[in-house]
UniProtKB/TrEMBL annotation:
Species name: Seonamhaeicola algicola
Region (Disordered): 395-418
Lineage, opening ranks: Bacteria, Pseudomonadati, Bacteroidota, Flavobacteriia, Flavobacteriales
Biased composition (Acidic residues): 395-410
Gene3D superfamilies in the cross-refs: 3.30.1490.110, 3.30.420.40
Subcellular location(s) of the protein: Cell membrane
Family: Belongs to the FtsA/MreB family.
Full protein name: Cell division protein FtsA
Matches recorded under NCBIfam families: ftsA
Superkingdom of origin: Bacteria
Length: 443
């Protein structure tokens, strides 16, 4: 596959999306092809039927390949699901020599120490995100590299998930004939697609309402501060409509999309929708007021759970206030009057997040829908990964050339060794490698 291309694969509960994109001359994202299929083997973000998931992935990938007229080999995959939780943790290391400056190795040592935390059986640390550092008791340091100090401590945001779920996703991707280029946490991918840098600085909560789960990511001062996955999404609303109106799922979904509203006060009592009965039975008449009451009850429950998480982060403290409020994205955010309801319950400014922040100007309207926020974020993540690899290979080649040219005196060798600035591997890259190794050995 070409170098400046990336493919995002969003394995959701309701749909699987494969999206091929590349950067255009202006640094914006151009979508070349998109494929989507109904997701059959996924429940609440977790794969529960490998064979069906593989079929759905292959279908989405073939559709994207046909649209872009090219073959897909590597993909960047998102992970979410009800098994993901996060915790705050602080740790420190004592440096052997406080006369030297703090470098990447010290930070790696500190991060690796966090990875030794004892987790529940079957759980593994997915992400370790440093929040702020302390050097010899001096607090609120954003970047400690280059400072002197004997004791280096940091607060971390640690994201934890079920190993088996992650491996199952890896398995599905591999069995679909694709290779895993990277794994990313879905709330982070969606955030990259719909949030601006200013919002991340000011403090913002991103709520991605999917079919099976609602993902939350909170940013402040440009750093991710809190993540959570709530095991409810648009499907539970459809389920409630199905039960409450005694109709089949397909009709419930259509009712929700066409006539659904999260605000019951909007509908008059005499607004009625007639639904054809099954096999010669009488048609059913449903008042829109009742429909929105059913939707309202469930949506309120989802928002309140999310709001509890926002409060857990500490939004009510003056120092941690989220000035930019809430951004809603994902398929569920297209529900009528949802923005108003969220503002009413939380008292926070709210907007709907469209992934057009990074997209080229002439993109189709379909692609800029909140439905595809995660997929766009995954493509961006894949492109960023490639950029990093490119920089690394260039650096290595330059070093080799320099080494050949240089006289091998002590000084020159020392200079060369210090030259290339090695990009620190994010833990997700290491996780991707581990999942790959596991799958290779398990075959």
């Amino acid at each position: 596959m070409e170098h400046n291309l990336a493919v995002g694969l969003d394995i959701g509960t309701t749909k699987i999306v494969a999206m091929i994109g590349r950067k255009n001359d202006y640094g914006k994202l151009e979508i070349l092809g998109i494929g989507r299929s109904k997701s059959l083997g996924v429940h609440r973000g977790v794969v529960n039927n490998i064979t069906q998931t593989i079929q759905s992935i292959q279908q989405a990938v073939q559709e994207a390949e046909a649209a872009a007229n090219m073959k897909i080999t590597d993909v960047t995959v998102g992970i979410a699901g009800q098994h993901i939780r996060s915790l705050q943790h602080s740790d420190y290391i004592t440096r052997p020599d406080s006369e030297t400056v703090i470098d990447d190795d010290d930070i790696d040592r500190l991060i690796n120490q966090v990875h030794k935390l004892v987790m529940l059986p079957g759980e593994e640390i997915i992400h370790v995100l440093p929040q702020e550092y302390k050097v010899d008791g001096q607090a609120e340091i954003k970047e400690p590299i280059g400072m002197y100090g004997g004791r280096l401590e940091a607060n971390f945001h640690v994201v934890v998930g079920q190993v088996s779920s992650i491996r199952n996703i890896g398995r599905c991707v591999k069995s679909s004939g694709l290779s895993l280029e990277g794994i990313t946490l879905e709330p982070l991918a969606s955030a990259n697609a719909v949030l601006s840098q200013e919002e991340k600085e000011a403090g913002v909560a991103l709520i991605d309402i999917g079919g099976g789960t609602t993902d939350l990511a909170i940013f402040r001062d440009g750093i991710i501060r809190h993540t959570a996955v709530i095991p409810f999404g648009g499907n539970v609303i459809t389920e409630d409509i199905k039960e409450g109106c005694s109709i089949i799922e397909k009709q419930a979904e259509l009712l929700k999309i066409k006539f659904g509203s999260a605000w019951p006060g909007e509908n008059k009592d005499n607004e009625i929708v007639s639904i054809p009965g099954l096999r010669g039975r009488e048609p059913k008449e449903i008042t829109l007021k009742n429909l929105s009451k059913i939707i309202h009850a469930r949506v309120v429950e989802i928002i309140e759970q999310v709001y509890v998480e926002i409060k857990n982060y500490g939004h009510e403290e003056q120092k941690k206030k989220l000035i930019a409020g809430i951004v809603l994205t994902g398929g569920g955010s297209q529900l009528k009057h949802l923005k108003q309801l969220v503002e009413y319950i939380t008292g926070m400014d709210t907007r709907i997040g469209y992934p057009n922040e990074h997209l080229a100007g002439d993109s189709d309207e379909d692609i800029t829908s909140p439905l595809f926020a995660t997929a766009v974020g995954l493509v961006l993540d894949g492109l960023k990964r490639q950029q990093r690899k490119k920089v690394e290979t260039e650096t290595i080649t330059e070093t080799e050339v320099e080494e050949e040219e240089a006289d091998t005196t002590e000084e020159n060798v020392n200079n060369i060794v210090e030259e290339p600035k090695k990009e620190r591997k994010s833990f997700l890259d290491k996780l991707t490698e581990r999942v790959k190794d596991f799958l290779d050995n398990a075959e």
